Amino acid sequence: MAQKPSIPKGTRDFGQVEMARRNYIFDTIKGVFSLYGFQQIETPAMENIGTLMGKYGEEGDKLLFRIQNSGEKAALAPEKGLRYDLTVPFARYVVQHREELSFPFKRFQIQPVWRADRPQKGRYREFYQCDVDVIGSDSLIGELELIQIVEEVYRRLGINVCLHINNRKILAGIAEVIGAPDKIVDITVAIDKLDKIGVEAVNDELRERGLNEEQVEALQPILKQESGIRNQDKLASLKEFLASSETGLKGIAEMEEIFRLVESTKTASLKEESRFSIELDLCLARGLNYYTGAIFEVKALDAQIGSITGGGRYDNLTGIFGLPGVSGVGISFGADRIYDVLTELDLFPKALQSTTQVLFATFGQEELRYALTWAKELRAQGIAVEVYPEPTKMKKQMGYADSKQIPFVAIVGGDEMAQHKVMLKNMSTGEQQLMELGELVKALKS
């Protein structure tokens, strides 16, 4: 017996139900992106490895999928890799096409990315990201719009979320104050794991990365921040801690302005919404080296699955490709994790189960030809139609409609066909009604 075929670990097939649900997520996100003037682009699945290396930190570089050169002279062709995220390819795109773009440039991108990670719940080797970025502006209006986009996307999807926010300048200020400015990368990589490994394990990693006991101890108020404290109170306390750090105070000023913008632009209806909140999280670090300002992560409140959206401000990502001084800010929605949350909480609309509105069921070849003619007429009216391809037992045809959750079946019979009518059956209620073509179109459209 031949061995059953399989797919690589950390990847998945998607059947018709899964695709309907995924498209619901993509269409919802696209709809919100478009409201804010973002336009779609795409970049290749593979990039030259030099484009990718050194952009994601020590941990990220280890997770790059490399591609063996093929179809080119191996000695001459640059090594390639599958893209790790959409932000670095976007920066490369901006530099390469800068003469064609108008700044600030607002783009969104929905494509798969790959990471050589250990597969586990909510973590895949191949997964889709839905990125939205604005580049070419230092204005914190960019951060505000991203926060509003997050709020609106999850409002439409019905998911209760908390947006965690911090600032890399604050983290740099903390490193300065504790006397370890050269250890900022080590500190951010370690504390970014706090939710996963806990305070003591983070302390151990900080020591392994070269921080002394005094420096580790100085970080404890940050690592053990109490929950339930108002964002403004956290910032006030942080001002005292970072009083000697110009960089840290600049980060605090940016955070104060972002909170002011968010509060001043809330509508009365959104102020009453309980499904969206913002929390200043001083342990949020996001391990990617290119972030320089505000950083974001979004977590579902009713599902234990980790971050489902993340991003931040990067002031010079294009500089590594020869275009310095261009600031941008972006955020990425993890479609696969959002899918898992919607599945766990049973939030997908039931109507997604079928795109077909009516199935034609027939008793013979003549009725089948008649059904095909009517089906063409209905499709011309924008109605999704299937015709069962052979006049088999009616029970089998009805079973097919049930299995695909098709809401109506149009039964074509001899006497009714002579009257240019069909019997429309509501599969939910069992109600049946004899209809002419015009009546059928009206009933299905209503």
Kindly describe this structure.
There is one protein chain. The chain is an alpha+beta fold. The chain has 19 helices and 16 strands. The strands form 3 sheets. It has an 8-stranded mixed β-sheet with strand order 1-5-6-11-10-9-7-8. The chain has a 5-stranded mixed β-sheet with strand order 13-12-14-15-16, sandwiched between helices. The radius of gyration is 28 Å and the shape is elongated. The two termini are 53 Å apart. The mean pLDDT is 89.
Summarize, please.
By secondary structure, this protein is an alpha+beta fold. The protein has helices spanning 16-35, 49-52, 57-62, 87-96, 141-157, 168-177, 184-191, 194-197, 199-208, 213-218, 220-223, 231-241, 246-264, 268-271, 335-344, 365-380, 394-403, 414-418, 437-445; strands spanning 39-40, 46-48, 66-67, 80-82, 105-114, 126-135, 161-167, 276-280, 294-300, 307-314, 328-334, 358-362, 385-387, 408-412, 421-426, 432-436. It is built from 19 helices and 16 strands.
- What fraction of the residues are assigned to beta strands by DSSP? 15-25%
Quick one: biggest sheet? 8 strands, mixed
Helices, by number, come to 19
Oligomer classification: single chain
As residue ranges, the low-confidence spans are none
What's the overall geometry? elongated
N- to C-terminal distance: 53 Å
**Fraction of residues in helix:** 40-55%
Give, in spatial order, the strands making up the sheet with the most strands: 1-5-6-11-10-9-7-8
Structural class: alpha+beta
